[in-house]
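As agreed, record minuted below.
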Amino acid sequence: MNDERYLGYQSSELSRGPQLHSSAGHIMDNIGREIEAKFIVENLDEVRQRLLALGGQLIIPCHLEINHRFDTHDSRLRTNDEVLRLRQGPQVTLTYKRSTSAEERIEFELEIDDFHAAQSLLEALGYHLIFTYEKYREVYTLDEAKVMLDELPFSLFTEVEGPSLEAIKQKVEILGLDWIKRVKYSYLDLFDILHQRLNLPFENADFDSFQEWPSIHPSDLGLDDAVQSFSDSKSERTEEATLKE
């Protein structure tokens, strides 16, 4: 796999399942609430150029992430809108999330040293791997917000994360994105839709599996009306919103 490719380029117990303790890693600063919105886009380079024009700063260059989702054998986490994820990227992180709305989640995240040891620990505690997905990601700051540009094997996405829903909506507007068209599904949910509609012969969203598969259309994901394109009218709206700041 070529890591340089780029297309556009209140906490609860884990659903009363096996218990996970935090003594094996450093607790990161972003424990608490995660507030973000996700958008499917036609072209990541257009979003990137808008970010830079607005003063956005690249803080994490494009890199490959490998994400493992875990659950109990009776799927308690997913049933209760909870996520247990092990991620390998610039750092290795173990994350637990519980959704309170489509855009807001309670989140606990640990930075750890050993990806494979962490997976073995989770499996020893009774969790099992249910899904693996890969993505190329680069991260920008835009004032108090973070903007992530994501290439998954099946589509391109932009995520905007901030301290409040109002702050996110403001950044979404000046980026020329349409808040109404935000995607409320997780990447696992989107892959499940794709898997069912296209009868995919593989179970994970990795680049190797999709390499010889025909191009995926947003309609295959049920998102044909959600794709963000950048017309001249949206450029004008972005300039107007910038002048208001």
User: Anything to note?
Assistant: The longest strand covers residues 57-71. The chain is about 25% helix and 35% strand. The radius of gyration is 18 Å.
